């Protein structure tokens, strides 16, 4: 990891060309801070470190953090992120006295400087983020490090087994792991993780922004056509969607099945690329960033803003799940369902396998074999008002039935921290 440091610096410079956030505070990546080192923890003011690598993990962290602040009103947050979108989202979570930095590069030197500078009372890694030097550094300093909302799909499990000499010591050195599902728990236990409980998925406890949701529903009501959202689409999926849509639209139109498309790419650096793809195919495109009061008439609306997913789900009668029509594992479908928006998902949902299966069994997520079937089913669904209303009502019941993980996880974090002798007093 030390020898690879120059490669990381070069990668950051290249990423910053399209995402300027990667040029921000680069020394923090290597454990160099302009923040004074922290002394021993003040009584009643613990420093809780949460690491959320990217956007999805940061949103899950926000749900957990809300509960933690209720249990520990005087807590101080140390938030680390790995991506520019995660850091931007994480900035919204900060209160007075909180700290936000980049995740330290997983070299012994950078990790050592990070831990000596901040001396957290507990570290909470979100979902999948296991770094061997980071885990080893916490163990050596007596800092309890836990994995919350933990998940491990089959692919990651096989990879961990292949590199068991590296993975097992890292997972075994965690203080506690709280898994999302029984399947996750079995795979994590198999590679040595100390799984203490299966607490469910934090994302079921998310509450959509009521203001954004209401605005989206207002725009949906004003649309002349039913709206299908392609949510968090990934590279290659938009081209496949375009091919499927152009091949099917004439036949669908002859059956009276109209649709307004709303595309929201997963990564902001691809907004211009997706815009050009649609325009080159002869479609008119209107970008969210140019709207005044409401969306203008266009073949495609392009969601090129950050932090407005609740609004986009509010606009949609149904959503196609990005990342599931290519072998990428699928994005988070729970967010859509919490907005009462039924989902059409492709064949690849291994990142959220159990949530996808439960949603399919409940009838709130429909499985499509490929992109052509997904497009056809989505358009058909939004043109059947009675069926659509039934699915929307099921979405609300489904998400309500799976809530509760946030409070359980917050209590587990607090109990783990309190059971650790002399919190925050670990040396360098």
UniProtKB/TrEMBL annotation:
Under the cellular component aspect of Gene Ontology, which terms does the record hold? Answer: plasma membrane
Catalytic residues of the enzyme = 57
Q: Which pathway is this protein assigned to?
A: Bacterial outer membrane biogenesis; LPS core biosynthesis
Q: What is its main location?
A: membrane
Q: Does the keyword Cytoplasm apply?
A: no
The protein's UniProt keywords, in alphabetical order, are: Cell membrane, Lipopolysaccharide biosynthesis, Membrane, Transferase
Per the UniProt record, which EC number(s) apply here? 2.4.99.12
Mind telling me what this protein is named? 3-deoxy-D-manno-octulosonic acid transferase
Q: Where is this site: Transition state stabilizer?
A: 127, 203
Q: Which GO terms describe its molecular function?
A: Kdo transferase activity
Query: What is the annotated role of this protein in its UniProt record?
Result: Involved in lipopolysaccharide (LPS) biosynthesis. Catalyzes the transfer of 3-deoxy-D-manno-octulosonate (Kdo) residue(s) from CMP-Kdo to lipid IV(A), the tetraacyldisaccharide-1,4'-bisphosphate precursor of lipid A.
Protein family (similarity comment): Belongs to the glycosyltransferase group 1 family.
Give the source's domain of life in one word. Bacteria
The places in or outside the cell where this protein is found are: Cell membrane
Q: Which organism is it from?
A: Diaphorobacter aerolatus
What is the organism lineage in this UniProt record? Bacteria, Pseudomonadati, Pseudomonadota, Betaproteobacteria, Burkholderiales
Report the record's Gene Ontology biological process terms. lipid A biosynthetic process; lipopolysaccharide core region biosynthetic process
- A Pfam family of the record is Glycos_transf_N
Which residues belong to any copy of the 3-deoxy-D-manno-octulosonic-acid transferase N-terminal domain? 26-205
Q: Which InterPro entries match?
A: Glycos_transf_N, Glycos_transf_N_sf, Kdotransferase
Q: Which reaction does it catalyse?
A: lipid IVA (E. coli) + CMP-3-deoxy-beta-D-manno-octulosonate = alpha-Kdo-(2->6)-lipid IVA (E. coli) + CMP + H(+)
């Amino acid at each position: 990891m030390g020898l690879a440091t120059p490669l990381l610096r070069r990668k950051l410079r290249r990423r910053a060309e399209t995402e300027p956030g990667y040029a921000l505070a680069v020394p923090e990546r290597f454990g160099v801070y302009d923040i004074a080192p922290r002394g021993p923890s003040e009584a009643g003011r613990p420093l809780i470190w949460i690491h959320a690598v990217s956007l999805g993990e940061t949103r899950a962290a926000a749900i957990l953090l809300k509960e933690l602040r209720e249990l520990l009103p005087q807590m101080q947050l140390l938030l680390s992120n790995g991506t520019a979108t995660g850091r931007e989202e994480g900035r919204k979570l900060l209160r007075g006295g909180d700290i936000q930095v980049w995740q330290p590069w997983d070299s012994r030197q950078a990790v050592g400087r990070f831990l000596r500078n901040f001396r957290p009372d507990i570290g909470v890694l979100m979902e999948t983020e296991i770094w061997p030097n980071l885990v080893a550094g916490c163990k050596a300093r007596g800092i309890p490090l836990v994995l919350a909302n933990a998940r491990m799909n089959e692919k990651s499990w096989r990879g961990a087994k292949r590199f068991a000499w590296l993975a097992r010591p890292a997972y075994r050195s965690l203080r506690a792991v709280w898994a999302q599902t029984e399947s996750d728990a079995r795979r994590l236990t198999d590679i040595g993780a100390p799984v203490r409980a299966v607490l469910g998925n934090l994302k079921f406890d998310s509450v959509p922004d009521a203001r954004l949701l209401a605005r989206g529903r207002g725009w949906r009501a004003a649309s002349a056509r039913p709206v299908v959202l392609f949510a968090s689409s990934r590279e290659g999926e938009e081209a496949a969607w375009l091919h499927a849509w152009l091949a099917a639209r004439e036949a669908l139109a002859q059956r009276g099945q109209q649709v307004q498309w709303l595309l929201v790419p997963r990564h902001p650096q691809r907004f211009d690329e997706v815009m050009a793809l649609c325009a080159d195919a002869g479609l008119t495109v209107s970008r969210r960033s140019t709207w005044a009061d409401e969306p203008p008439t266009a073949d495609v609306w392009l969601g090129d803003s950050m932090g407005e997913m609740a609004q986009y789900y509010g606009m949609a009668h149904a959503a196609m799940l990005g990342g599931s029509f290519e072998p990428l594992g699928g994005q988070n479908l729970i967010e859509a369902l919490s907005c009462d928006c039924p989902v059409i998902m492709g064949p690849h949902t291994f990142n959220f396998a159990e949530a996808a299966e439960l949603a399919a069994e409940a009838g709130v997520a429909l499985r499509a074999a490929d992109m052509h079937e997904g497009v056809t089913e989505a358009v058909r669904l939004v043109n059947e008002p009675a069926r659509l209303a039934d699915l929307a009502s099921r979405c609300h019941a489904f998400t309500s039935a799976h809530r509760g993980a946030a409070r359980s996880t917050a209590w587990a974090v607090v109990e783990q921290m309190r059971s650790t002798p002399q919190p925050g007093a670990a040396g360098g």
